[in-house]
Amino acid sequence: MTEPVYLDNAATTPLDPRVLESMLAHLGGRRGNPSSLHSLGGSARDRLEEARDSVAALIGASPGEIVFTSGGTESDDLAILGLARSAGPEKRHAVVSCVEHAAVREAAKCLQTEGFEVSWVGVDADGLVDPVEFDAALRPDTALAAVVWANNEVGTVEPVHELAEICAVRGVPFHADAVQATGRVPIAVSETPVSTLALSGHKLYGPQGIGALYVREGVFLQPILYGGGQEKGLRSGTQNVAGIVGLGSAARLAREEMEDRVAHERALRERIVAGTAEIPDVSVNGHRERRLSNNVHLTVSGVEAESLVLFLDSLGYVIGSGSACSSGGHKASPVLLAMGLGEREAFSVVRITVGKDNTAEEVDGFLEAFSTAVAQLREISPLYAG
Amino acid sequence: MSDRYSQQVVDHLVSPRNAGEIADPSGRGESGDAACGDVACFTVGISENVLEEVRYKVYGCAACIASGSALAELVEGRHLLDAAHVSKGDLEDTLGGPLPAGKEHALTLVLDALHKAFEDSWNRKAGEMLIGAQTGRETGGRSVVAAMSGGVDSAVTALLLKEAGYDVATVTFRLHDGERGSRSCCSPDTVLFARDTAHRMGLPHFTLNLKDLFHRRVMQDFVGSYSEGRTPNPCVACNAHVKFQASSFLADALGFQHVATGHYARVEEGPTLARPMDESKDQTYVLWPVPRDLLSRTLFPLGEYRKTEVRAIAEERGLAVAYTPESQDICFIPDGDYRGFVRKKVAAEPGDVVDREGQVLGRHAGVVDFTVGQRRGLGVSAPTPLYVTEVRPSSGQVVVGQRQDLEVREVEVRDLNWFLDPEEAACVQVRYNGSPVPCAVEEAADGGWVAYLDEPAIGVAPGQSAVFYTGDGERVVGGGVVARRGS
């Protein structure tokens, strides 16, 4: 069987061959521990710092503000838990949006078990946080606020700049999960006063298992890992040098190619939106303009997501589903419910996310397969009367 | 067990067999609900008990769609008895082995939808019968429809009949809502449990929806009795009007000869009803109203066994029902709160508690709260214990008295069902766990009968059953309903 056409880039991106090459160069040679004093250690340290420069450059930060982690989840957890736990005994409140990735949502729930109060800020039907509502949720005892830069499910890009400025004025540390946004949305922490910002390697054509947390100069975080004091004490443990080298290469390429990639993705995205619009009772979720260049999120009325994903898989097209079905029944996505979708609708959603390597021909083939699959599944659906 | 789907599942997903819906089906069944997310719908075309056409629709995960497709393909063209035999395991085999973890509910979902389509077809076929009328019958070979409640007795009944060489079809009755609470396709449910048990024994299983019939002939009577000052026995009402008729209907429809239940009793020549081997489990007292023509085709295999043996058989054969607890309560009132149940259905008006002379001793909140012989909850204090001796719904009075005031020597009985010549009646039992009291019987002018007791009986309440036995106490001569207390 030929390789399937990959349209699930929000889940993970393919590893860029140029990134792989940079990693192999490191993995294949003699290696030292970047903390060692000798020459091999120094060499590893050099690789590390080159990568740090590249990551910092991608988001307009200083290299000293970049902490390497094991990925997006660790970055989010370190920011949320670290900011809250270092906020002082009188600050026991957090403001978090209802459309966060699970990494932020679950870390905030962990804070609740530690006695923090969490205000969950809602969104409109497009998944957008309202800055006025957000502002109203902030209190004198708020230890931190967190809003995702671009939502991983529906792709809506939040007004993070405005939200971060509100927090800066109110003196509240602000965390942005930019795992999906990095490389697709221009980010400059020099302009946008976030306190911390999470990003991940494998959404950027880099390796899995590597990420970074931007921590603004002067912002204090309590670590969640303790040990040798690497990464300025914020992330103890010998660094994943090969992963960091890969992340550095991926960041450098993303910075150089961002404009082209976004234009390419956007064209493919619009091709999918236009193509699927021809099928009755298919609607796009999320904001039409303020959205990630690569994301198409659809409600396909009368069709259950898993069956559609597997059907398309069998036709050679890989996409993401918006729900999971298990013995306990479906678990509707909290993000979709927050946007006002009904339980049943929330089981009928799929996510198609293109990447820099997809082609218009692939998209056309997908549209044909999608149309076939939807028609056939609707044929046997007792919930679709078309 | 893999967490991925087999090639067969994907094949059924992409190329579903028998998808669609029959425009004018013999039966239609749907399973699933919003909480679960998945919905399956089956329509069947049945002719002479053969599934000539089976169509399905599913909204749900790949496992649900593939299971529906595989089931429809598996049963189309087969005899109903073969189709009703198909188990979750059979279905998994055709899908290339166990489904991924967490997907097993797909099998339950589609089987339930198919069985509900069968159930619907029976109801359509039965027309008025399953809501109150009678039907004729044909006879076949050594074949029997065994009623299965989900308990150990009825399961072992079906198993014993199978092992004795009968063709057995099992049936579970849907009698009321609220059996084990939830109706979601993924939660434990009486019908699903009984179906599973039958399939594990390798027997076909059917479901009949008797909710209307049961409501009319059993539950309404139960509630009405209390407000009329009678003490009802819903099991008797069910045996009189529901269980045996419905089993018999299905036997006729399948061309089967016999019906069977898990009661502890024997059917002897005549037909007549006789006490079982295990006297401690004797259920002849609640079986007296079974019509003679139905009793003549009835088998009670457990009449030859002790309860301990029945449980041992279930354990030995590995039936999960071996460990189900003994049910004591009325099936539609699982918490045992009869008063609460009745009070939800009828408005209760307060009235007086009086003594035999009519002197008012106190107030009560409604006659539905009282039955003859009751001692507790009278709200009246007295030097010696007081008992309810009579309930007078027309005046709203509850009459109380001493224990000896409850003694009766004459019992008037109506609605009689005789198996033997009334002359043979030598003793009468007036309570489920009571002992028969020697008596003489005499026909009354209005068609009822009067039993003259040799010794006084205590707490004979109108509405209860009076069952007459032969001189040796072994056989049921007949039975009826206590009309009112003799003086």
Q: Short summary of the structure?
A:
The complex is a heterodimer of chains A (about 375) and B (about 475). Chain A has helices spanning about 15-30, 40-60, 70-85, 100-115, 130-135, 160-170, 240-275, 305-315, 335-340, 345, 360-380, and strands spanning about 5, 65-70, 95, 115-120, 140-145, 175, 195-200, 210-215, 280-285, 295-300, 315-320, 320, 325, 330, 350-355.
- Rg of chain B, nearest Å: 26 Å
Strand content of chain A: 15-25%
State the helix count of chain B.
14
Q: What summary fits the major beta sheet of chain A? A: 7 strands, mixed
Rg of chain A (C-alpha, Å): 21 Å
Largest interface: A-B, 26 and 34 residues
| Largest sheet, strands/sense/barrel of chain B | 6 strands, antiparallel, barrel
Query: What is the CATH domain class of the largest domain in chain A?
Result: Alpha Beta
CATH superfamily of the largest domain in chain A: Type I PLP-dependent aspartate aminotransferase-like (Major domain)
From the spread of the alpha carbons, the general shape of chain B counts as elongated
Q: Bin the helical content of chain A.
A: 25-40%
Q: Kindly report the CATH topology of the largest domain in chain B.
A: Rossmann fold
Overall tally of structural domains of chain A:
2
Strand content of chain B: 15-25%
Named CATH topology of the largest domain in chain A: Aspartate Aminotransferase, domain 2
Oligomer: heterodimer
Arrangement of strands in the largest sheet of chain A: 2-8-7-6-5-3-4
Poorly predicted segments of chain B: 131-140, 179-188
User: Order of strands in the sheet with the most strands of chain B?
Assistant: 15-18-17-16-19-20
Description:
The complex is a heterodimer of chains A (386) and B (487). Chain A has helices at residues 17-28, 39-59, 72-85, 102-113, 131-137, 160-170, 241-277, 305-314, 334-338, 343-346, 360-379, and strands at 5-6, 66-69, 93-97, 117-121, 142-146, 174-177, 196-200, 211-215, 282-284, 295-300, 317-318, 320-321, 324-326, 329-331, 349-353. Chain A is of the alpha/beta class and 386 residues long. Chain A folds into two domains: 5-12 and 258-379, Alpha-Beta Complex (Aspartate Aminotransferase, domain 1); 17-254, 3-Layer(aba) Sandwich (Aspartate Aminotransferase, domain 2), CATH 3.40.640. In chain A, strand 3, helix 4 and strand 4 form a beta-alpha-beta unit. In chain A, helix 1 (17-28) packs antiparallel against helix 7, helix 2 runs parallel beside helix 7 and helix 8 packs across helix 11 (360-379). Chain B is of the alpha+beta class. Chain B has four domains: 7-126, Sufe protein. Chain: A (Alpha-Beta Complex), CATH 3.90.1010.10; 130-323, Rossmann fold; 348-405, SH3 type barrels (Roll); 408-485, Elongation Factor Tu (Ef-tu), domain 3 (Beta Barrel), CATH 2.40.30. Helix content of chain B is 29%, strand content 25%. Chain B contains 14 helices and 20 strands. A six-stranded antiparallel beta barrel of chain B has the order 15-18-17-16-19-20. The termini of chain B are far apart. The relative contact order of chain B is 0.09. Residues 131-140 and 179-188 of chain B have low confidence and may be disordered. The A-B interface holds A 302-304, 306-307, 310-311, 314-315, 325-330, 343-344, 347, 376-377, 379-384 and B 5, 10, 13-14, 16, 19-21, 30, 34-41, 56-65, 68, 101-105, 186.
